[in-house]
Design a protein that fits this description.
By secondary structure, the chain is α+β, with helices and mostly antiparallel strands. It is built from 6 helices and 15 strands. The radius of gyration is 21 Å and the shape is globular. The relative contact order is 0.12.
């Protein structure tokens, strides 16, 4: 399918990959980059580079590949199952695994793996591309994530997310030294008005966001912390820590720099607590640190 994108005056100066990522049919910077790399975006008949800055009046021609299947397919991808019964399954997701199919990631996701492992016993509340998915964690964040095996369990767990009886605990390494041993960041999060691909602490079109943190260890130039979420906004811990002046180690989106030897933000979903949707009993699950996270701690030097 071919479409045209005309640049408005207020969009002048934006990079083409950022501009494309805001289009409904593309929706992500990675998908935009693939189109540009394949030469599927042209201006006056010539392929456009991803760092091209658009000018008012530019009209880009974009060839969109065939849409991904509307239904996710089962794929035999190894899973680290921490807990499973007839209602729920909790998986320790590795860093780099996308949670569900989306533009730029049509398969090879956690959902594809769950379909192979669970068969048809996943809830349909989230739709055919997100069966069973109750909440998400970033592709480059590792750790515990829960999925529902039937609609009743899904609705119960979603209600727990809203009333905060389903809680999540994360470990992270931040730049800088925290003066206090514990604290709370209570600051609303919404789309960054200067970059729609990022989130930010802002009052404009924002939702309440609360993160509690405590120091686990201090190093010369970094701090190892544990965060518990009272709310679940997109990139909440990454945004809140950057807002305090302590961005996560390895976070190029909110930290503004690439840390040598790290492929992504140093963030791991360590703990998960919820009320079982059938038995009503509280369940608390924890996972150890992945090797890559422990390696980071080892390289930070002695604790102070």
């Amino acid at each position: 399918m071919e479409t045209k994108i005309s640049v408005k005056t207020e969009e002048s100066g934006e990079r083409i990959d950022s501009l494309l990522a805001c289009q409904e049919a593309i929706r992500s910077r990675s998908a935009a980059a693939k189109l540009l790399e394949a030469g599927l975006v042209t201006l006056r008949g010539a392929p456009v580079r991803k760092n091209y800055r658009a000018a008012a009046g530019d009209v880009f021609e974009v060839i969109l590949p065939e849409a991904a299947p509307a239904k996710a397919m089962a794929q035999d991808i190894p899973l680290d199952v921490v807990y499973e019964d007839n209602d729920v399954i909790v998986v320790n997701k590795p860093r780099g695994l996308v949670v569900h199919p989306a533009p730029g990631h049509p398969d090879g996701t956690l959902v594809n793996a769950l379909l192979a492992h669970c068969g048809d016993s996943l809830s349909g509340v989230g739709g055919e591309l997100r069966p069973g998915i109750v909440h998400r964690i970033d592709k480059d964040t590792s750790g515990l994530i829960i999925a529902a095996k039937n609609d009743r369990a899904h609705e119960a767990l979603s209600a727990q997310l809203k009333d905060r009886t389903l809680s999540r605990v994360y470990d992270a390494v931040c730049h800088g030294t925290f003066h206090d041993d514990a604290g709370t960041v209570d600051a609303p999060i919404g789309r960054d008005p200067r970059n729609r691909q990022r989130m930010a602490v802002t009052e404009k079109n924002a939702r309440p966001a609360v993160t509690h943190w405590q120091v686990l260890a201090r190093y010369a130039r970094h701090t190892y912390i544990r965060c518990s979420l009272e709310t679940g906004r997109t990139h909440q811990i990454r945004v809140h820590m950057a807002h305090t002046g302590h961005p996560l180690l390895g976070d190029t989106v909110y930290g503004g720099r690439r840390d040598k030897g790290l492929e992504s933000q140093c963030l791991h979903a360590r703990g998960l607590k919820f009320i079982h949707p059938t038995t009503g009993q509280p369940i608390e699950l924890w996972t150890g640190l992945p090797d890559w996270f422990q390696d980071v701690l080892n390289k930070l030097g002695p604790e102070i």
